[in-house]
Amino acid sequence: MKAIKLSERQERIVELVKEHEPITSENLAGHLGVTRAALRPDLAILTMMEVLEAKPKVGYIYSHKPSYSFLYDYINNIEVKSIMSSPIMVEENTTVYDAILHLFLNDVGTIFVHNEHILVGAVSRKDFLKFAMGGTDMHKVPVGIIMTRMPNIVYVKKEDPAYLAAKKIIEHEVDSLPVVEKTSENGKEELKIIGKVSKTNITRLFVKMGENK
Amino acid sequence: MKAIKLSERQERIVELVKEHEPITSENLAGHLGVTRAALRPDLAILTMMEVLEAKPKVGYIYSHKPSYSFLYDYINNIEVKSIMSSPIMVEENTTVYDAILHLFLNDVGTIFVHNEHILVGAVSRKDFLKFAMGGTDMHKVPVGIIMTRMPNIVYVKKEDPAYLAAKKIIEHEVDSLPVVEKTSENGKEELKIIGKVSKTNITRLFVKMGENK
């Protein structure tokens, strides 16, 4: 899989380097029947893409690490704040039934539970379904009983890379993470919810990255 | 946001082009106090990255489309088959209760309904939760009653780009798509389920793309 399509000549250079490494630019030019100067742009591109490595006084060698670094840079420069969306929040004493209504009305997969915007818990579609399977009356149980409670909630900050959010989502097997800001009121450090990042946000970002514009 | 970090000189060239476009390579070389030949690799990289556009007999202009093309190529070369996972399937007469058990046991978000591997329907966590809200006995209703039925199911083929799968997921607001293969038995064309692609698969792919290896 290649990121930038190499030109035919660039492909040929890579083949020659693989075969003869280390090989000088003079030798490469000789093989290709062109001048050294004519090769310079291609060699610059190939070393910049880390397909080739230039060893001073030795020549070019094939770089055995694939050239993912540009992709790595690209992805790690996207911050959570540029892809996050609004969190849907309820208070701890909201009934499970009302919380599920919020879930449907806003078409989200996770409801965050807050106390004056401070994160106290999270409930997912899966948690709600598990509760519904039990047959207990949804109108009588507050969401605080079935939620995952802090400090057992994985979160990100808005300056974190979107990559980190995606990694936490996969590692912790959750659908959505709250985006928080640290505040210290009354001398106690707490987390204020300011957004959320879900698999939907990551998928939307992926679509945006793949758009041909 | 840049994909490849430009060198200081490349950044300077871009600034000069923005200011003076269209500008010839001679003029650029003059501004920078270097020879035209010395600029050639930088100009080759900048036009290849589509940061600049070279107009024959006019000079370089700044390309107003950002240089996403390499990213576009990269993403559109990833096929569904390289990221799909196994579909969890039940038959149409399975009870809603049993289907939800399958959902939990396999920790998936969508159950596909099949008839001898031919796709007939799909039920999501959201569909199940909506049903559970209604209070009807889950043991008595077959999943065929609540599923989304063909031909109302969006699907992909294993040779499709992962990008197309992500796009369909976002556009149709679903969590998961069946991956199908066309078969024509008894002269009738049908779709055999061979996999699935979900937001989880896309998120996992995004994490893999962002890994520094």
UniProtKB/TrEMBL annotation, chains A, B:
Any Pfam family the entry gives: HTH_11
Q: Which domain of life is it from?
A: Bacteria
Q: Entry's InterPro entries?
A: CBS_dom (IPR000644), CBS_dom_sf (IPR046342), CBS_domain-containing (IPR051462), HTH_11 (IPR013196), UCP026546_HTH-CBS (IPR016842), WH-like_DNA-bd_sf (IPR036388), WH_DNA-bd_sf (IPR036390)
Q: Which UniProt keywords apply?
A: CBS domain, Repeat
Domain CBS, which positions? Answer: 83-138, 147-213
Name assigned to this protein: Helix-turn-helix transcriptional regulator
Q: What is the organism of origin for this protein?
A: Clostridium oceanicum
